[in-house]
Structures are given as C-alpha cells and as structure tokens.
Amino acid sequence: MNNLVFNVKNNSEPTIMLSELGYKGNQHTNTEIPTIIEQDIVKKITDLIQTQTPFSFSKYGDGEYLCALDGHGNNCDFDHYTPKLQHGLKTSFKYMIEENKYHNTYIAAWHDKKICHFWRSLVSDEFKDKIQWADYHTFIVDVKDFNNSQNNSDLNDKISLYKSIQDSTLNKYIICNNTMNKMGLLFNTSNILNIPYNNWFDFHFDAVLATMKSKIGDDPQPMIITSCGMSSKVLIAELHKIYPNGLFLDVGSGPQFICTKCDLRGRDYSYETIYNAFKPILPLDWDSK
User: What CA–CA distance (Å, rounded) separates 12 from 88?
Assistant: First the structure.
C-alpha cells in the first residue's frame, strides 16, 4: 500500500448554495435537454467489468457543477472550489466526451436536469446528444433498494456489481483517503494510494498522478477505482489519456457506509442493514478489520 502524506487541514468555510451564486431556476433550462438515463446501468457496468471491456463512469454532481460554474466556495466535504480545479473539471468533462474513442463513457447525472444542461453546454454541438447519462446512485445503495417489490432486485444487482469488481482478475488500483482503506478488502486489492480527505488538487495533483503512473507502469488494462472527491474526475481523464484500455470507476461515497460504519450522507438505514446485505461477499472477519 502506498501512502502519500500531506499536511492538509479541513476548512470550515460554509458551503456555497446555488442561489448565492446568482443561479436562477430557469437559467439553464432547455426543452431539448436529454431526459433519458441509460437503462439498466448497474447490470451494464457489471457486464463490462466481467467482460473486461474498457469503460468509464464519472460522477459530475452538484459540487462539481458549483466549482465549474464559479470556482469559489466549497462542497459538503469542505473541499475548496478553486480556479485551477474549475478549469480541470471543465477540460476533463470535455475530454471524456469528445476525445474518448470508446463509446462506453458514462456520466452520472445529478438529479437536476438544468445542471446536466450546463455540462452539455461545454461540449461541441456534434457531441451534445452523445453524452451517455447514468444514474448518479449507480454505486450508492439507497433505502429504496431495500424496498424493491421484486425480491430486492435493485439491491441484489448493486451487490452483484460490487462482487464483479471483487472477482475481477484485472489489476485494481484504488485512490482514496485513509478512512476508506477497507475498500481494499472489499474489492480484493492491496494497491491503494491514500490522498488527503480534501483540498489536495491545487498542490498535490501532479504528485498523485505521477505516483499512479509509476504504480500502474505498463499495465495494459488497469481497473482504476476512485473515491477522492471532485478531483477524481480530473484524475480519471488524465489517466485515461495514458491507459485508454482501462476501466475507470468513480465510486465516490458509494462504499463509505459499509467501509467506515459512518453514515455521512443520510442513507436512512443502519449499518447493520447494509452489513447484512453485503455479508455474502464480505470476509468473515470484516468487522474485526
């Protein structure tokens, strides 16, 4: 396990809201915004992993939107919006849509279609309708997943997705902060690069990218799993330029509850509930680790 040690403190600045940026409800409204989300995305990604087919899944949510829109403030993790990160998010999105030669580029769509339109506005006209929007909660287990009327099929599909990562024979590389190190056990890999909890992009991104390039080396098809905030979108884009045959999974906070026992996103269910759901794919000594 590689650990990059940086002295980065959490900042206590309050989160900037849309209204504080002068955002108006109809600012990006466009009746031509695609409303179709890729169907059966959980099963589709599971199949891509099992068949070792190159693809990327990146989450461009409200924090990424606010940073790209204004470049000032911070998100719910107290990760600063900066002009450098603002530029990185915009260019990474444009690259993944316009220059990625594979069709399996999935963008997790935030719940507000107006925000999706903002991202859509960054790419050339010929690519606007080629964006493959995916469910933002693809890797997140929601309380509704436990209440699915068809024998918890949504929950079972998500657990199968996690198991497909766990069982993959590809070399897997995780980038996360040290509170998420149990992802190594969950996904069956010891290749973990620890980054700070937040505010690492402006000063440490180049070092993180160089370390990942050194760690991956000439691996022709790495599986890269990120849980490192807004900066992960830029990291995925830069690594994709070097490893176009890779599989890129921006899992974000999806595994957080099962790995840390801490519900930082208001999931509305207990750790025992998520543990029992994942128990069939967890090591017997999971809770003692």
Answer: 23
Compute the average pLDDT of residues 14-21: 34
**Predicted pLDDT at 150:** 57
User: DSSP letter string over 203-262?
Assistant: HHHHHHHHHHHHHHTT-SS-EEEEESTTHHHHHHHHHHHH-TT-EEEE-TTTTHHHHHS-
Q: Taking residues 222-226, report their average pLDDT.
A: 98
3-class SS of residue 108: strand
Find, among 251, 7, 280, the residue nearest to 141 by Cα: 251
**In 10 A of CB 217, how many CB atoms?**
8
Euclidean distance between CA atoms 153 and 125, whole angstroms: 38
- At residue 265, the pLDDT reads 79
Residues forming beta bridges with residue 250, ordered by sequence position: 226
The pLDDT value recorded for residue 257 is 96
Place of tokens 């790419």: 123
Buried b (16+ CB within 10 A) or exposed e, 31-42: eeebeeebeebb
Residues whose CB is less than 8 angstroms from the CB of residue 17 and which lie 6 or more positions away in sequence, other chains included: none
Interatomic CA distance for residues 255 and 278, integer angstroms:
11
Q: Are 53 and 118 in contact (CB under 8 A)?
A: no
pLDDT band at 53 (very low <50, low <70, confident <90, very high): very high
Q: Is 16 helix (H, G, I), strand (E, B) or coil?
A: coil
CA 65 from chain centre, in angstroms, equals 14
Tokens of 83: 């002009």
